[in-house]
């Protein structure tokens, strides 16, 4: 029996509308492969009307809103998400394939907290004292909003990444056009329904469709002051190039290849537990996933002896069932990508210690996998797989561990495992990553910034630092005569 599909519309200017082109596209449940919804396939005309609606709301309402008013709106959004948390988690589970229980417990609370954090931040934007820096004149600094922000969210954490973008953008006084992934738009649309009763018309707009023309249309549109993208490196480069034509601000979070540097004195039990969490939560479809284990010469053999059976024993299955630890990959396309990485690694001489194959049933399923690569220069070590695949290498000394950790193009997150405080701090200083964890891997908090070095992009999500991305500085100078 086929699942009934629900027909959705886009949210523009406070109204639910179809695409100007009249086309729709299917959204599938990756656990079954069945369609569960249709959404409008947006056009360039849809982008333009969303920009006009957002600009109208900015000029007529949001520009003159006070920090207190914006804060109160954000608090109401947080309350709405909290009240509908289980419903939103179920939608996300159906659309992305995440285990429902962990989505409820591990994602909804941080999303709620994100909006509450930025509700407070809205009322605490930096204001520097005025002063006389030239005789006869007084200067002061204004921190102002940008205008219309285009936010392009990824498919792996559709609601959480939307929150990371919407929180600071709205707190700073911008209006937003949110473009969710064409694969996973459903929580963004449900969120828009909740926001419709809270935010003034046009402050938040949600448009669905493909990267071209919708995402690219936002980047090209001269009425968009800034684009924030979470995605892959190739897309980020395209966005940066396209944004140059209008010199709009760009904020990019572009994935990673996180090293997990395990020294011989590490707490082995803790390492294994956090690799299970950090490497396989959301089926490894996480830009900070613990995918690249670099282990010391005396601990590597013992680590593999514990890690391989732990990964082999992960409970993979129905995302809605109690106890499920890993669900499917998001799509058949992603399944093909992950399979290709492992198959090519095998041909290069890598040893697949567990997993390494599709799970043969309806949907997009792949076994939790541990690979011992042939070389630190192997593709599977250096490139982002974005799936339930962890590699394990053995280093000879601290300098080699550091060199291998820093050798990739990415620089989003890393972790160091050791009981030696001096070594941990030495490594944290020299690792070229925007976040470095010590004796843990993957926890994030809204008070601290998240963003990359190197080709993992630029700009910060979360924390008070993210407000710098969504504001601009104006110097005002007045004559005293």
In terms of topology, how is this protein built?
Blueprint: E1 6-7, E2 10-12, E3 15-17, E4 24-28, E5 35-40, H1 44-62, H2 67-83, H3 85-96, H4 100-106, H5 108-121, E6 131-134, E7 137-145, E8 148-152, H6 158-171, E9 175-179, H7 186-195, E10 204-206, H8 211-220, E11 226-230, H9 233-243, E12 249-253, E13 259-262, H10 268-280, E14 292-295, H11 300-312, H12 332-348, E15 351-354, E16 369-372, H13 379-382, E17 389-394, H14 398-406, E18 413-417, H15 421-430, E19 435-438, E20 457-458, H16 466-469, E21 471-479
Parallel strand pairs: 1-5, 8-9, 8-11, 9-10, 11-12, 13-14, 13-18, 14-17, 16-17, 18-19
Antiparallel strand pairs: 2-3, 4-5, 6-7, 7-21, 12-20, 15-16
Helix pairs in contact: 1-8, 2-5, 3-4, 3-7, 5-6, 10-11
What does this structure look like?
This protein has 481 residues and is an alpha/beta fold. It has a 7-stranded mixed β-sheet with strand order 15-16-17-14-13-18-19, with helices on both faces. A 6-stranded mixed β-sheet has the order 10-9-8-11-12-20, sandwiched between helices. Helix 1 packs across helix 8, helix 5 runs parallel beside helix 6 and helix 10 crosses helix 11. The longest helix has 19 residues.
């Amino acid at each position: 029996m086929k699942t009934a599909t629900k027909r959705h519309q886009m949210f523009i200017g406070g109204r639910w509308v179809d695409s100007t082109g009249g086309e729709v596209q299917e959204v599938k449940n990756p656990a079954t492969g069945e369609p569960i919804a249709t959404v409008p396939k947006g056009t360039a005309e849809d982008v333009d009307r969303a920009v006009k609606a957002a600009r109208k709301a900015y000029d007529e309402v949001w520009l003159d809103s006070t920090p207190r008013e914006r804060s109160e709106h954000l608090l109401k959004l947080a309350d709405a998400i909290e009240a509908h948390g289980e419903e939103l988690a179920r939608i996300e589970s159906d659309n992305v394939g995440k285990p429902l229980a962990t989505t409820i417990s591990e994602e909804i609370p941080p999303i709620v907290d994100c909006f509450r954090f930025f509700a407070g931040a809205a009322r605490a934007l930096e204001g520097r004292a005025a002063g006389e820096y030239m005789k006869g004149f007084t200067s002061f600094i204004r921190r102002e909003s940008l205008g219309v922000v285009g936010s392009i969210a990824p498919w792996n954490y559709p609601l959480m990444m939307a929150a990371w973008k919407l929180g600071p953008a709205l707190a700073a006084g911008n209006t937003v056009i949110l473009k969710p992934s064409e694969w996973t738009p459903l929580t963004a649309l449900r969120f828009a329904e909740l926001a419709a009763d809270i935010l003034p018309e046009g402050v938040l707009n949600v448009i669905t469709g493909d990267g071209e023309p919708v995402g690219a249309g936002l980047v090209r549109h001269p009425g968009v002051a800034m684009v924030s993208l979470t995605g892959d490196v190739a897309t980020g480069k395209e966005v940066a190039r396209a944004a140059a034509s209008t010199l709009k601000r760009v904020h990019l979070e572009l994935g990673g290849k996180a090293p997990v540097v395990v020294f011989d004195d590490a707490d082995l039990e803790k390492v294994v537990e956090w690799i299970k969490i950090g490497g396989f939560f959301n089926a490894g479809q996480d830009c900070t996933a613990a995918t690249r284990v670099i282990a010391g010469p005396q601990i590597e053999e013992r680590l593999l002896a514990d890690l391989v059976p732990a990964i082999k024993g992960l409970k993979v299955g129905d995302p809605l069932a109690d106890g499920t630890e890993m669900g499917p990959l998001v799509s058949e396309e992603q399944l093909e990508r992950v399979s290709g990485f492992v198959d090519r690694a095998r041909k290069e001489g890598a040893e697949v210690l567990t997993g390494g194959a599709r799970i043969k049933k309806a949907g997009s399923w792949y076994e939790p996998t541990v690979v011992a690569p042939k070389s630190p220069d192997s593709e599977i070590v250096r490139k982002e797989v974005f799936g339930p695949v962890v590699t394990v290498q053995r280093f000879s000394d601290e300098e080699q561990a550091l060199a291998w950790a820093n050798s990739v193009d990415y620089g989003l997150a890393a972790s160091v495992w050791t009981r030696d405080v001096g070594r941990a701090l030495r490594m944290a200083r020299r690792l070229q990553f925007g976040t470095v964890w010590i004796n843990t891997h993957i926890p994030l908090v809204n008070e601290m910034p998240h963003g990359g070095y190197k080709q993992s992009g630029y700009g910060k999500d979360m924390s008070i630092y993210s407000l710098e991305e969504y504001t601009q500085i104006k110097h005002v100078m007045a004559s005293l005569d």
